[in-house]
Amino acid sequence: VKVAAPQAGEVRIKTVAVALCHTDAYTLEGSDPEGLFPCILGHEAAGIVESVGPGVTEFKVGDHVIPCYQAYCGKCQFCLRPGINLCTSVRAFTGKGVMKADGKPRYTYEGKPIYHFMGTSSFSEYSVLHAESLAKIRQDAPLDKVCLLGCGISTGWGAVWNNAKVERGARAVVFGMGAVGLSVVEGLVKAGASQIIAVDLLPKKLELAKKWGATHTIDPRELPEGTNVTQRIVEMTEFGADYTFECTGNTVVMRSALEASARGWGKSVVLGVAAAGQEIATRPFQLVTGRTWMGTAFGGWKSKPQVPMLVDQYMAGNLKIDEYVTHNLKFTEINKAFELLHEGECLRAVLTF
């Protein structure tokens, strides 16, 4: 694969470390709603600036950066609104797998174009990104750890702190104990939640949830006949949870999460990415009676200004990252990493070049 030089407003980086996320797997199997083929996948990475295109003054060669699929220009309505991170500056182009400068990708193979993915395409030793899609970070942060801040665990923390705004003493339920779900648990612990119920089908994942701070666990398969997850949660919380978080991407679970939240004030947050064409449904009465159903993209973080803050918090020992990395592999072992992900044998596998 040939990687062209950056054009106006673009930066070429050398990827040092990249982690696998389920969204990469979704796209690989054709389930992701935005996947264009052929493309270079990958979006949880960290690297070093190799060159910059004309007009780029924010970055210089040697800067350490984290690619961000949620861009930030600081000028559009979505960037200017507090708590909103759906920047429009390059969105129309990243969704098509091309660059804004000329509407073409920067990757080719045997003379044929290869599309970008999520504006990042981090499964490549070199990648070209819009300057809006990079966050500059401190030089002493380990790139094979902070690469995880490009997506999953940042999303979990932000869902709790930025989107749901969980208060001390709250009762919460988390569906799905992968890296995202565990980061939600971590966020809930730091927010002071009094009851944290973890739901998963794998006993080993529920054990991890306890280590992360969950106070209760539920394996739906072990419930008494005639009792479903929603009923069990209502029993445990009296009226339903104050907050529920869906981290599986399963639309049936999304409905269960909503209906397990308390009528009158319950809030349910969707973090999981569903396959293309999937729809969610519930009885309108669930919303009429005061529940709030919402989603989050990248946990509401404004990438360019706030990702460096998360790096600082990690470096200060206030946030976990190392514990989420269960496998360290060479990039040439990427197929093994996907197998581990599919088998549920890892939280995050980090690949280095």
Account of the 3D structure:
One of its GO terms (biological process) is formaldehyde catabolic process. Residues 179-306 form the Alcohol dehydrogenase-like C-terminal domain. GO terms for molecular function: S-(hydroxymethyl)glutathione dehydrogenase [NAD(P)+] activity; zinc ion binding. It comes from Polarella glacialis (Dinoflagellate). One of its GO terms (cellular component) is cytosol. The protein has twelve helices and 16 strands. With 353 residues, it is an alpha/beta fold. It has two domains: 2-150 and 321-352, Quinone Oxidoreductase, Chain A, domain 1 (Alpha-Beta Complex); 156-296, Rossmann fold (3-Layer(aba) Sandwich). Strands 2, 3, 4, 7, 8, 15 and 16 form a seven-stranded mixed β-sheet that branches. It has a six-stranded parallel β-sheet with strand order 11-10-9-12-13-14, with helices on both faces. A three-stranded antiparallel β-sheet has the order 1-5-6, with no helix packed on it. Helix 7 (203-212) links the parallel strand 10 and strand 11. The longest helix is centred in the middle third of the chain and has 13 residues, at 152-164. 51% of the residues are buried. The model has no long low-confidence stretch (mean pLDDT 96).
